[in-house]
């Protein structure tokens, strides 16, 4: 995993497999990747089933939050979902934005795009579309989105700064994002940092919470706030695939924390440096 391209190849491979996995298997693992846990609970994902617009066929159990719950989407909005998977957040956003709005899902993995398009076709949603592409170089025009959402995806991208720059580019002045993601407090054990499957599983690619929030601010966003935060506990039966018993015990007492956070931030309404608006 020495280069960004190698990391992206790992994500492409794993999420192509995940697109075909059973939802229960995805929920029992870390973002669907890595080993499954025999402990019966969702490691990361929150329950979408009570949200209007929810579609079970589009829910692969891969998220770490409910960004569409906090995204302040209004009727007629144009919404972009980064890492749209099988379309779950897009379909909920579509319910919120209504027939007069538009929802664009962007995903890196062709298998996910195919599944999302098939789901949209079954639902006969004509104002939801899915585009394949890198989220640090989105296949959309500048200044066109009212809202950007994403669920447990930025941690998978090596160039997080590039993603935030492109979010800033595609948002209209005054537009905002609500993003759920994994962040850290402290330092992960080297064995987890270097594990390819744990990278695809949303953990080893996470950065410190302070660094994450600083990147958002440095990219020109304002009104930054954490809308929700919860601690993530990785079960021993997953950790033991990478760590010895002593290393697991040390990790548990190290003070290192893995958190899901949902972050809100807004693009300024006034034009900033030349060329940004």
TrEMBL record:
Enzyme class: transferase
Keyword RNA-binding set for record: no
UniProt cross-references to CDD domains, sorted A to Z: AdoMet_MTases (cd02440)
Keyword S-adenosyl-L-methionine attached: yes
EC number(s) from the headed UniProt entry: 2.1.1.137
InterPro entries per the UniProt record, alphabetical: Arsenite_MeTrfase-like, Methyltranfer_dom, SAM-dependent_MTases_sf
A Pfam family hit: Methyltransf_31
Domain named Methyltransferase: residues: 73-220
MF (Gene Ontology): methyltransferase activity
Reaction catalysis annotation: arsenic triglutathione + 2 [thioredoxin]-dithiol + 2 S-adenosyl-L-methionine + H2O = dimethylarsinous acid + 2 [thioredoxin]-disulfide + 3 glutathione + 2 S-adenosyl-L-homocysteine + 2 H(+); arsenic triglutathione + 3 [thioredoxin]-dithiol + 3 S-adenosyl-L-methionine = trimethylarsine + 3 [thioredoxin]-disulfide + 3 glutathione + 3 S-adenosyl-L-homocysteine + 3 H(+); arsenic triglutathione + [thioredoxin]-dithiol + S-adenosyl-L-methionine + 2 H2O = methylarsonous acid + [thioredoxin]-disulfide + 3 glutathione + S-adenosyl-L-homocysteine + H(+)
Gene3D superfamilies, sorted: Vaccinia Virus protein VP39
SUPFAM superfamilies, sorted: S-adenosyl-L-methionine-dependent methyltransferases
N-terminal signal peptide: none
Family of the protein in this entry: Belongs to the methyltransferase superfamily. Arsenite methyltransferase family.
Name used for this protein in its record: Arsenite methyltransferase
Species of the source: Chitinophaga defluvii
């Amino acid at each position: 995993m020495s280069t960004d391209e190698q990391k992206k190849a790992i994500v492409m491979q794993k999420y192509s497999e995940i697109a075909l996995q059973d939802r229960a298997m995805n929920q029992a693992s870390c973002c669907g990747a890595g080993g499954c846990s025999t402990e019966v609970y969702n490691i990361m994902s929150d329950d979408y089933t009570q949200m209007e617009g929810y579609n079970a066929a589009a829910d692969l159990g891969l998220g770490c939050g409910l960004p569409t719950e906090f995204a302040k989407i209004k009727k007629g909005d144009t919404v972009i979902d980064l890492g749209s998977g099988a379309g779950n957040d897009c379909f909920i956003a579509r319910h919120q934005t209504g027939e007069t709005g538009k929802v664009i899902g962007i995903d890196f993995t062709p298998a996910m795009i195919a599944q999302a398009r098939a789901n949209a076709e079954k639902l006969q949603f004509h104002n939801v579309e899915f585009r394949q592409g890198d989220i640090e170089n989105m296949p959309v025009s500048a200044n066109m989105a009212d809202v950007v959402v994403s669920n447990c995806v930025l941690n998978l991208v090596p160039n997080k700064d590039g993603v935030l720059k492109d979010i800033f580019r595609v948002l209209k002045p005054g537009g905002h994002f609500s993003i759920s993601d994994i962040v850290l407090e402290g330092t992960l054990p080297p064995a987890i940092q270097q594990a390819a499957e744990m990278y695809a599983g949303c953990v080893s690619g996470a950065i410190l919470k302070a660094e994450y929030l600083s990147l958002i601010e440095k990219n020109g966003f304002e009104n930054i706030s954490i809308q929700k935060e919860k601690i993530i506990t990785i079960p021993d039966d997953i950790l033991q695939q990478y760590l010895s018993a002593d290393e697991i015990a040390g990790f548990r007492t190290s003070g290192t924390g893995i958190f899901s956070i949902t972050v809100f931030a807004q693009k300024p309404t006034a034009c900033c440096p030349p060329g940004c608006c």
